[in-house]
User: Which sequence fits this backbone?
């Protein structure tokens, strides 16, 4: 009888421990729960399947004494994202990285606004997270990655604070390339909703080459169709500019491209272009739609909400 009582007590304690562990796990999921879109994309010219993990807009806002003048702003921005999403961006990004690792993605793509400002603590945290990846990653910058204090989309921000991101982008250039045997993933940095001339000149030969190209941007491209679901939704969420233009896409009746950016768009939409798809972020909601008759665009939802896209590329 004594043994039975001890056994019952031990079982009761074990049950309590398991319940506490389950509650802790549930709280952990609530703090950083994630929603992964599963997509398959047929690509002509590849001979095997690839799995790509696309995330954007985690807006990590961490600050320490190295950027002491921004501590109050960083805290305000962090709380704003937490209040909006109901979860912690730091925990959410940790979970997204784990999801990419568990899925053994061939390439993890970070499509801009991963940090909310070029603060050392934010950059260090993101660097720690991508260092956990067992496969390569590709990082392009958005409109917030190199923002700093009141410097937003300024020449000073790009000149002074963009270099802090070199450890993440892996280059001092304004573009990055990851080349597989039969596939190229090419990323280009955002600069005031335009693309740097040196990057456009470097990427166009790939876009006119023999290998299929996945082009990674931060700001999505405006589809050629006048009746675009992406554009309608973007206008509903973000509203129109004072001139009645779409505020969050790049295109003829959206954020108007300059001559250099137009060269990149012409290469994307050219007949026979090697660009199989465009991946982007920026708009904070998921969308998959046709850019024209030949290529698609996949846009990741807001990473601080825990949104990401797992994309399986299959031979066409």
Assistant:
């Amino acid at each position: 009888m004594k043994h039975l009582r001890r056994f019952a007590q031990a079982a009761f304690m074990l049950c309590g421990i398991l319940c506490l562990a389950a509650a802790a796990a549930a709280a952990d999921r609530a703090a950083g729960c994630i929603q992964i879109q599963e997509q398959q994309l047929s690509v002509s010219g590849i001979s095997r399947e690839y799995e790509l993990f696309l995330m954007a807009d985690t807006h990590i806002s961490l600050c320490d004494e190295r950027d002491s003048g921004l501590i109050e702003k960083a805290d305000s921005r962090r709380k704003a994202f937490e209040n909006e999403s109901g979860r912690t961006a730091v925990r959410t990004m940790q979970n997204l990285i784990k999801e990419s690792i568990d899925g053994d993605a061939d390439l993890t793509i970070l499509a801009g606004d991963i940090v909310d400002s070029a603060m050392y603590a934010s950059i260090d945290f993101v660097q720690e997270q991508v260092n956990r990846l067992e496969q390569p990653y590709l990082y392009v910058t958005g409109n917030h990655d190199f923002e700093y204090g009141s410097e937003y989309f300024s020449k000073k921000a790009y000149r002074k604070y963009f270099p802090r991101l070199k450890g993440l982008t892996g280059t001092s250039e304004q573009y990055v390339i990851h080349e597989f045997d039969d596939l190229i993933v090419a990323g280009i940095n955002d600069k005031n909703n335009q693309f740097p001339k040196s990057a456009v000149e470097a990427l166009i030969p790939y876009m006119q080459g023999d290998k299929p190209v996945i082009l990674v941007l931060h700001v999505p491209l405006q589809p050629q169709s006048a009746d675009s679901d992406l554009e309608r939704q973007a206008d509903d969420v973000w509203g129109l500019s004072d001139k009645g233009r779409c505020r969050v896409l790049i295109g003829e009746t959206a954020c108007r491209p300059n001559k250099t950016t137009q060269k990149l768009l012409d290469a994307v939409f050219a007949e026979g272009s090697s660009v199989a798809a465009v991946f982007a972020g920026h708009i904070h909601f998921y969308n998959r739609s046709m850019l024209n008759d030949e290529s698609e665009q996949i846009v990741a939802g807001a990473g601080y909400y825990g949104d990401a896209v797992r994309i399986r590329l299959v031979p066409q």
The chain has a mean pLDDT of 91. The radius of gyration is 22 Å. Residues 3 and 9 are 10 Å apart (CA to CA). The longest strand covers residues 35-43.
